[in-house]
Amino acid sequence: MNALMREWERFTPTERFTRWAVYFALVLALVWAVRNVEIIPEFLIDAPEQMLDLLKRMWPPVLGHYHPAVHHALVETLHIASLGTLFSFIFAVPLALLAARNICPYRGLNAFAQLLLVTSRSVNSLVWALIFVAIFGPGAAAGTFAIAFRRRLATNRAGLLGRGAVPLGYQYPGKRGAGAGWCRRHWRCAG
């Protein structure tokens, strides 16, 4: 058959069969999951009444518990966040300077600083929290250091902050000579 006379189809028969097989497998998995979850029908029937009871107990709020219990926890949370950010800045600035090849001439020190930066970024916040809870025990110190070791304030965001302060109409030197189009020179867009 001539290639120009063929009727266009979005998927080949093999691709259609594969798609239907995947859909069928997903439906089977869903049916299996629903059968094995062991949903108690009485809880589903009772759910609207329970939600209404919860909302009635939430409103109006009882502010008598705020000052002795909630206020201290809220202030402690703000302290943890602000101290964690401050410590991350204190840790990150010297580490970023050591990782910069144009500032620190020692290759071994550059590699070690970059290893520390990559390690701190690649470990999840929850893992840092668990490590510091194991070291300090549960409390504010563990949260503060978990935030401090996970933040990327000075290292990652400094470049974005530096470029964000430049006015939008500013033409970066050398962009025209490098072949950048009007849009990229003036508005920092992808075009």
Structure write-up:
The protein is mainly α. It has helices at residues 13-36, 41-58, 66-99, 107-122, 125-136, 140-150, 153-164, 182-187. Helix 3 runs parallel beside helix 6. The chain is flat, with a radius of gyration of 29 Å.
Task: Describe the secondary-structure layout.
Elements: H1 13-36, H2 41-58, H3 66-99, H4 107-122, H5 125-136, H6 140-150, H7 153-164, H8 182-187
List keywords for this structure.
191 residues; mainly alpha; 8 helices
C-alpha termini separation: 42 Å
Shape: flat
Q: In percent, how much strand structure appears in the residues?
A: under 5%
Q: Determine Rg (CA atoms, Å).
A: 29 Å
Helix content: 55-70%
Helix/strand-derived class? mainly alpha
Largest sheet: none
The beta-strand count equals 0
One letter per element, helices H and strands E, the order comes to HHHHHHHH
Count of DSSP-assigned helices = 8
Low-confidence spans: pLDDT under 50, at least 5 residues?
153-169
Mean pLDDT: 79
